[in-house]
Design goal:
Elements: E1 33-39, H1 44-50, E2 54-55, E3 80-85, E4 91-100, H2 101-123
Antiparallel strand pairs: 1-4, 2-4, 3-4
């Protein structure tokens, strides 16, 4: 019979639900930055960088460059996780990125303002289908019941 180590600090049962994409608290200063995982789809990482996001680095990881693990990019200290596969079976990675909290909150306010404008237009019945617009608006128009 195999000995079971009793000195484990944390036991995770086989098959238990757990999140691979939890952001480790010690890697991002929550007061100053907002973290998010960005999938390496074509152009996505570049778009995130253009929007002010930076890769979260973990220089304390002991893997040699080129060796690779599921926690770090093979050629850098960027933190990543395998989250699926691209066409052709190439591993799809999500990279941990961060942005200044004030920029993140400004972006969120701008996104919410657009949602509010659309919601207001719906409430007023002012959204009309345009040529090339793929929304369906029935012959009775839009009714809104908050």
């Amino acid at each position: 019979m195999t000995n079971i180590r009793e000195d484990r600090t944390k036991r995770v049962p086989l098959g238990a639900l757990r999140s691979k994409l939890t952001i480790p608290k010690d890697l991002i200063d929550d007061a100053r930055f907002q973290g998010r995982w960005v999938v390496d789809r074509p152009g996505r990482l570049e778009s995130a960088q253009a929007g002010g996001y930076n890769f979260v680095q973990d220089s304390t990881m002991t893997v040699e460059v080129g060796e690779g693990t599921d926690g770090r990019d093979k050629m850098s200290t960027a933190i990543c996780r395998t989250v699926g596969t691209h066409e052709g079976g190439v591993p799809m990675k999500a990279y941990l990125m961060k942005i200044r909290r004030e920029w993140f909150e400004k972006d969120q306010r701008e996104k919410q303002a657009e949602v509010d404008r659309t919601d207001k237009a719906i409430q007023e019945g002012a959204i009309a289908s345009q040529p090339g617009d793929k929304r369906y608006i029935g012959s009775q128009g839009i009714t809104y019941k908050p």
